[in-house]
Amino acid sequence: MDPRRAADLPPLTRENVLSTSEVADLLGIPKSTVHQLARRGDLPARRVGRRWLFLRDRVAAAVAPLEDPAAWRPNRDAK
């Protein structure tokens, strides 16, 4: 890994790395939905063995667009 890039990453602490259960509780959704979103790539995660791990700041960035009022308007172009 490029040392410059490693310096930009948040430290891997218990505060910054979340489990599936913690993400489910944070977002108020079932763990199965968290797994599905992670598998589809809609929620940034890394699979380590049988576990999914999530970085807190990346989860926050993934859901941040939902703070935009336009995200809650119906998409009239969708079929």
UniProtKB/TrEMBL annotation:
| NCBIfam families in UniProt | excise (TIGR01764)
Highest rank taxon of the organism? Bacteria
Every copy of the Helix-turn-helix domain together lies at: 17-61
Its name, as the record gives it, is Helix-turn-helix domain-containing protein
InterPro entries per record: DNA-bd_dom_put_sf, HTH_17, SinI_DNA-bd
